[in-house]
Amino acid sequence: MNQLFIKYKFLILHLMVIILGFTGILGNSSFISLNNLDPTIQSSALVFYRMLITSLVLYFFIYFTKNRKTINLKSFIEIVCIGFIIGLHWIFFFESVRTNTVIGVICLSTSSLFTAILEPLILKRKISKHEIILGCIIILSICVMWWNTFELGKAYIYGIISSFLAALFTVLNAKYVNDIPATRLCTIEMFSGTSLVAIYILISGHTEVFLFDINNTDLFYLLILSIICTAMVFVLMTEIMKYISPYTLVMAVNLEPVYSVILCFLLASNFPTLKEEIKSLNVIFYFTASMMIITTIYLNYYFKKDNKS
């Protein structure tokens, strides 16, 4: 299995990113509506259901494969805290995509800047100037897009917070991927994240979330989101981190908006809410987003090639 990851690590990575492209779309109310719940708690409920299902799937996988490596208390507490960060990341992410899916996934591109800053601080890696340059290009592009769709500011704010949290847990996970099996690591994070979101829901007074009154359509998409787009992807990406840097992972994940936007356009004709969200964004937004993605991909390739030479 290790040889498979080493040989096909980039192919596996990009296949996982394509699957991740469905995450933001499935979070759209066109797919998982949760209309029986108060709109203010829908995103948190979605995260709770997603993390709970994922936790159970991973737990049973570990149980049947007998993959039960002991973890010391200090590491366990730190991993639990990473799980809290993941839970918060998904709450902000789904708040963003349920406001506007395209903006929500585009904002994830800012994670490369946050990673370039956090890696030297947490992993004591040397600061990379080209990563900072790429991050600044992305931030500038986001500002231009925000200026032209100012009325959708909520989607940008939640999206950028979500992106920062994604960069943070990715960098923190890098400390453990070589010492703890990916399934074990992800299971602890999913259970702790589930607990945090459940406590938030309780404090908010929305105990109706725990009645699990979910219609069949919502349940179907929740299972896809939890098992395929979360459990499988999370474990494989955590495993792949043994062979690539956190920044390389984040740069690959930056392609998620490309796949998500393409999927949005392909699916829009069948989902009116998604179609309206796409129409609400102007030509300047799409042009800036396209230039941002193309520029960052090209410059990242150029800088990496230049460093090798």
Overall description:
With 309 residues, the protein is an all-alpha fold. It has one domain (38-206, 214-308). 76% of the residues lie in helices and 0% in strands. The protein is built from 13 helices and no strands. It is globular, with a radius of gyration of 19 Å.
Give me some keywords for this one.
309 residues, single chain, mainly alpha, 13 helices, 76% helix
Please give the structural blueprint.
Blueprint: H1 2-27, H2 42-65, H3 73-97, H4 101-106, H5 111-122, H6 129-148, H7 153-173, H8 182-204, H9 216-240, H10 246-253, H11 256-267, H12 272-279, H13 283-308
Helix pairs in contact: 1-9, 1-11, 2-3, 2-8, 2-9, 3-7, 3-8, 5-6, 5-7, 5-10, 6-13, 8-9
- Please, what is the oligomeric state? single chain
Helical residue percent band: over 70%
Radius of gyration: 19 Å
Number of domains: 1
| Low-confidence residue ranges | none
Count the E strands. 0
Residue-averaged pLDDT, rounded?
86
Summing up helix and strand content along with how strands pair, one would put the structural category as mainly alpha
Distance between the termini: 32 Å
Strand content: under 5%
Number of helices: 13
Largest sheet: none
Outline type? globular
Order of helices and strands: HHHHHHHHHHHHH
